[in-house]
Specification:
By secondary structure, this protein is an all-alpha fold. About 70% of the residues lie in helices and about 0% in strands. The protein starts with 5 loop residues before the first helix and ends with a helix. Keywords: Membrane, Transmembrane, Transmembrane helix.
Length: about 180
């Protein structure tokens, strides 16, 4: 049974931005000066989707928005676009969480995959409409597929190391009464 105490919830709410900062730091490290032929997975997006499906109370909307806005600024992407799309995607996944119905992991992975594909295509479409210079379509698709492929690993790490378990019906009822 997962711990639903207010202290645990606030610790995990602080852990999400901390983990995101770690991912941003590792991404910005100058490990190679040559251009890459492949795009790494978007670990932050996979993390927020996994936590939004499993424990929506651990990733508040404002935390997601500020974290991804900071990532947009540091990665020199159009400010706020990915942040908005990820907030919308995570909010959609949060609204689909039904604590009384246990879904299989494959169903969860498919729904998260649909959201990630929608975020990727929406981002690409909005940037094309606004005539913003974009990376090649191949790199974007590689990153999207890599993010989908790394999602089960993110879920495994979140469950085993961080204790981000799905809410049971009793825990959801206890959180709903707060």
């Amino acid at each position: 049974m997962a711990n639903t105490s207010p202290a645990r919830i606030w610790v995990m709410r602080a852990a999400f931005p901390a983990l995101s900062l770690l991912v941003i730091f590792l991404h910005l490290l100058p490990l190679s000066t040559l251009p890459s032929r492949w795009a790494p997975p978007d670990v932050m997006m996979a993390l927020v989707m996994a936590w939004a499906v499993r424990r929506p109370d651990f990733v508040p909307t404002l935390s997601i928005a500020f974290t991804f806005l900071m990532a947009d600024l540091l990665f020199q992407r159009p400010p706020g676009l990915i942040a908005l799309l990820v907030v919308l995607g995570a909010s959609f996944l949060k609204s689909q969480v039904h604590p009384h119905r246990e879904t299989a992991f494959l169903g969860e992975w498919v729904s998260v995959g649909i959201v990630i594909v929608a975020i990727t295509l929406s981002n690409r479409l909005i940037l094309a409409v606004l005539s913003v210079e974009q990376p090649s379509l191949g790199l974007i698709l590689i990153q999207m597929v890599a993010t989908l492929a790394v999602y089960p690993l993110i879920v495994l790490i979140s469950e085993s190391l961080l204790g981000v378990q799905k809410l049971s019906p009793a825990e959801a009822e206890a959180l709903g009464s707060r």
